[in-house]
## 1
Amino acid sequence: MLPGFAPRLSHRFILEGKTITNKKAEIREIYTGRIIAAAEEVFALKGFKGATTQEIADRAGLPKANVHYYFKTKEILYNAVLEDVVVVWKKDADAFDQSKDPTVALTEYIKSKMFHSFTRPSGSKVWANEIIHGAPVLGDEKLGKFLNIWEKRKTIQIRRWIKHGKILPVDPHYLLFMIWATTQHYADFEHQISVLNGKKALSKDQQEQATKNVIGIILRGIGLESEV
Amino acid sequence: MLPGFAPRLSHRFILEGKTITNKKAEIREIYTGRIIAAAEEVFALKGFKGATTQEIADRAGLPKANVHYYFKTKEILYNAVLEDVVVVWKKDADAFDQSKDPTVALTEYIKSKMFHSFTRPSGSKVWANEIIHGAPVLGDEKLGKFLNIWEKRKTIQIRRWIKHGKILPVDPHYLLFMIWATTQHYADFEHQISVLNGKKALSKDQQEQATKNVIGIILRGIGLESEV
DNA sequence: GTCTATAACGCGATAGAC
DNA sequence: GTCTATCGCGTTATAGAC
């Protein structure tokens, strides 16, 4: 086909209508997904400023300009990554509400968070970075909104357990901080842990052992017998 | 005094000798100290790439060129900050060895680390940043060296306690990770904690409560009765 | 919707006067 | 040892051909 005679996109759009529209939306979904996944890794590894759109584009397998086509600015892309992380953690939070029994609820919650720390550490790292720097992009308002989702119901539930003598009296916040800190440590400090483990990532077996240990210490620490 | 007739530094140096030399060394010490302190805060707040030498200079109260005079490159300055953090944590590690009794040793260790998290959060944040990004500046070798200092003796001691039935059998590494994670969380996630605390930093009283809770849960978690 | 080429800018680092 | 002015590079973002 001679140059200049390639069918114009507008023609095809008019000719084939809905099919092309769907295809476009589909392509958009595929690419934005790929870009976000690539961005999550690069932001985790380099920080917001340290990450370059070029590297993100390379990892996503497309030219830099296309990244800017789907996400106007680096900051908008960064926000999309953060939103994605929040979605994952929301699911962990749900695990907490699966049972009225403290042993079950806490065990499931910690298991969930440990699982995500091992399988998707980058998201946690991006979040940690954002918080360490004082939530400059997320902003305090949005941050407060997210935190309340994770904290409010749990705090109430924990107080109820204390009231009914099911667990020892501890301030719910400090217990939650300990769970968040310990579980997310396996994602955020992955590198440090692997260096201490002879430069090897924790094996599946070690991951299970770590999860058991964490559950065991925390549950016993508040007066429960752990099931694992 | 007319321009061009200001006394040359070399003259004064020859005339007054040692006094000037001392003064110079003194000035150097004062400025390098100020620069490192300023750098620690800016690196903590913005990350390595995000921090600008201009902002560090501003905080230290001198022109940007002077920062480069004392620290040839940004990376050299960053390394100096990291070394400083390690010195502080080395002291915390010593607290662990103050007693052969697990309750005392662990209580003192956690207290020390919590204290530094509250009083000097920036150092911990810089460290966290460096590890999250895979220790690109520190390098694995240096990192391994530091970690061994903090971990080796503690691991041995913990195993001894387990052997003598003083604490429940837990993998020493997972216990140490929990202590590091939980205590450093109060530094690294300071901002998140303050947002959950109604946008106010934890009060002295809350800091004490947090410390008590952390010690209580961890010690009870490994089968000890906490003293606090 | 894709991609190359480039504009516009901020930053680390330094030269060179004082 | 101090400081201003500036160089040179790397980066985000965009213009404009296809």
Note: Chain A touches chain B through 54 residues (CB under 8 Å).
## 2
Amino acid sequence: MSSTSVCKATDPVAPMRPVIPLYAVARTDVPKQRGARCSNCAMRTLCLPPELSATDYGRLDAIICTTRHVRQGDSLYRAGDAFQSLYAVRAGSFKTVIVHRDGREQVTGFQITGETLGMDGIASSEHTCDAIALEDSVACIIPYGQLQKVCNELKSMQQYLYQMLSNEIVRESTQMLMLGTMSAEQRLAQFLLNLATRFKARGYSGSEFNLRMTREEIGCHLGIKLETVSRMFSRFQRDALVETRGKRVHIVDAERLALV
Amino acid sequence: MSSTSVCKATDPVAPMRPVIPLYAVARTDVPKQRGARCSNCAMRTLCLPPELSATDYGRLDAIICTTRHVRQGDSLYRAGDAFQSLYAVRAGSFKTVIVHRDGREQVTGFQITGETLGMDGIASSEHTCDAIALEDSVACIIPYGQLQKVCNELKSMQQYLYQMLSNEIVRESTQMLMLGTMSAEQRLAQFLLNLATRFKARGYSGSEFNLRMTREEIGCHLGIKLETVSRMFSRFQRDALVETRGKRVHIVDAERLALV
DNA sequence: CGGTTGTTTGAATCCGTTCAATACCTGTGG
DNA sequence: CCACAGGTATTGAACGGATTCAAACAACCG
């Protein structure tokens, strides 16, 4: 999620191996801040195409020059906001939520370091969901108009953007499969294994981590009630698949968990 | 869905007002066929950006020159197939299905005339779902590589492609909301109203139409069992919201149906 | 330290599933 | 043309997984 230098530093777990060092980030909630550089960002392997030259990075540095600090619970953008930029999570984590007229809420995704936000806004020039910080977080601002210009000259970047959009489509399809066909137990198992994979890809432990979201937010993502989430955690504990203590998660037997 | 000249012509309902005339299409299942022309296709307002010049259309005609006829039940592409083209439905209709290792199936969407297929394949150069024809259908083949070239010269087309991808993301988010938060009754109501809107946008009746999919396929899309779909149809009938006779649907009271 | 928020667990209830039987529709072949 | 077959749709009754409501507990913050 974040390096120890960022945010509240109350996390004694995930950053034990700070494999991906990040710049120190002031805790003040300054809306924008210069100084971010793609060219030497530790996250660049996650949000940029792999084969970029030094001059390519220079071009991106000229575009993505601001970051935004978002306090826990605050929004990066809200449904209805004019779409102007994509965002990359530089530190911390977010949830994206769509709210129906009648108040129904669905968490459409959780985004951690190196993942991208805001692609829903391209269609209608308006965001269709809220992006809320799960902890004090930092996002890189990627102005869409300028990104397009870069894409016109940098074909690999253009291709990468198409792929990111398509990836989001595939991710959501998978989530639909989960919501449409799986039991509460299976949904939670898949959710934990998916999170584990993403943490591992970032150099953190894939078996021990801290959840940044509440049981309610997990339930709202998986289409089940928070009580059910809690019951399933208890069941996993009983069956020696996962150990939990509050937000702390230890996946004991990933293989069996996948077969639930 | 299709004009009377296409397919089995067993549909006495939807094409009663053939507002969108289509070219006659031979019933033989020829894999590819020349002769399609974007410039004078009746569907062009649906799958292309609005403000194109004659020369712009000429460019597209040079690219999208083949169509493919797909028999009911046959696939346009399958999960694992190499991604090479996007597809636009020219006549008929399709469903897209993801199949989990364990056999679980989820219908991620239904595509009718003028809608687009295949965007899931961009991410990994492989399709991730099956696209199956619900009736004898015709799809325009849009070679992705060549489309990219056109996009590089035709900015409005490029923007449109980005928007189409984003639109798909938004559509899937909405579907997730449905799967995650709504009762069986509400899901079916929303589904029917959504279909009605799309038919209406194509010049057909928004209150009377024929379903092209079975109860099982509807259920598989809505995350409920086919028996439940049937029960909800019966409930709507009892409450004078919708009248059905097999695949024939008449939405009697759309306002109340939306409030279910 | 007290108040707030988040988590766990139990018991009763309910919605959707499962299993099963019957009816229907459509295309096929006698 | 009618009868038949096979897939599709409807309906009932019993069951079960998830929800609801409620209460107790734990963790966190000012």
Note: The mean pLDDT of chain A is 86.
